[in-house]
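Quarterly update from the structural biology core.
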Amino acid sequence: MIRKPFSESNHKANDAIGKKIVIDFLNSKGIGAIENPDDYGIDIMAPVYEVERRTIKSEKWPYQTVHVPERKTKFLKPNTWYVVNIHHDLGDLSNDTLLFCSTKKIAKCPLVEVPNKSIPKGEHFYDVPLSFWKQYEAYDG
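Predicted structure, tokenized:
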């Protein structure tokens, strides 16, 4: 199975801001969330959240499923949530949507090969129906 190699530039552009948006949102809901100091562990602790940030140029998620990379299987553990921070890049009207899904649900979904701009062939993803995700708008500040 093929996996996308680590990209320092992608990580630098998305990791910190994606986690900050999710931590701020969780804290605003009374959930004491902190960033995990272990760079190789799950992203957010108390409870446990793995975060992925995606940038799209539309107001809504345009697909019926959300693809979770197979390489994230190590985080599909009990009492863990997977969060996709969708950054809607709309110029002055940019905003963020958060999709939350129990990793227990993700683990039950089929793996499918998805060609993409990083890996044109061979990379697999969990194909998770959009209905499995809870959606929230993230507000800055």
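The longest helix spans residues 8-28.
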